[in-house]
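Help!! Second protein's tokens look totally different from the first
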Amino acid sequence: MKVPRQHMETILNEVPGVNTSDKYALIQTKAVIDKFKTYGFNVSSYQEARFRKEDKRNKVKHLVRMKIDGQMGVDREIVIMNSHDGTSSLKLNFGLFRAVCQNQLVFGDKLLPTEKIYHSKQNPWEQIESFADLVHNKLDEEQKLREYMMGHRLSAYDIEQFAYDAVALKEKDMSIVLDPMAVNLVRRPEDIGKTLWLTYQRIQENIIKGDSYRKLSIRTDENGESFEKYVTAKKVSDHQRSIQLNKDLHSLAMSYV
């Protein structure tokens, strides 16, 4: 995949934000991408946060996914999160992309913890190379785990509990959630089934993409009177929040293994 032209200046940026300290040593995203390319990874998608101030241009938080292979309808990926303004360290995660539903998943720490690398004067490349080696060493384990999930059938009780616990990861107050089982909504024929893999895929997609379960919201009208309104769960668009939720959802799925 070719990175869109409007984002290339962020990836290529070598100038840190104006508010960074003297101890800050920018780790350029382009250099990280080039390093992973030597391990066989290629860019599969790119996102970056919006910015309002001009001095944030080319420096805001951004997320790059690089895939290594495709099998059984999925690609294993390295998920790179970085910024050039001092608001985020370089974070590396091991993830998965499922083509049929465009799901972009991130594995929990049980399989491979997040690698966090600070923008400092120390050499970061040893950590980056170590992470790439760990990913390669985990490929067979991840495939066996996925095959087990595809063959492991859940009971109706387990699916209901999975759905409730998954929504609880996103919502602080479960008392306002009207129909948590709606997060188990089937969006396509390929997702019909009661295996751990399909249950996890359905729930992950509905949690991240939103538009499934409903919540009770208290609003105030123009006269200052309170009234109740039902709202549909929103999409998780914040990159950092999405990654953490994905990791938590994968850890939840692993509790059924």
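Here's the second one for comparison:
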Amino acid sequence: MEYTSRAVGNAALTTGIIGTSLGALSGAGGLAGLFGLGPRPAPADPGDKPVTRYEMGLFQQINEKNDEIVLLKANQYSDNKDAGLQAQISQQAVWNATAGATIGCLTQQIQQLQSMTKLMIPNSSVAPGWGAVVVEPVIAPAATTQGTGTTTTGG
């Protein structure tokens, strides 16, 4: 830990006190005004005069009108934004409906194609005049068994 020496601490304390005192004496709110050392007020504008109650009422009306104009502009801006958003939502709804209908048509076509693979077409329609065609399942040869040393075949 380091501590300041007594001389350095006293110097810092003294400097702080002097700075605080000078700050209190200077400035508009300081003690310098008591001694006539503070800032001088600006000379009065010859156009400065008290405002009447009527003039103050006019100023308040003007401010109310300005507030109303600002509010109307803000509402108009938000209404325009809402209209643009509604247009985007409508456009998205149309696109969604179109995409849904397209997907529905494609699904139906896929189902039709799948059902065609299960459709039986008579031989007379495919190859007229060739006679009857018989489709028989292919029988695989019998499996051989191992382990007993004998082989058996089906027959």
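Reply: Different proteins will give different token patterns, so don't panic. Helices lie at 6-25, 53-116, 123-126.
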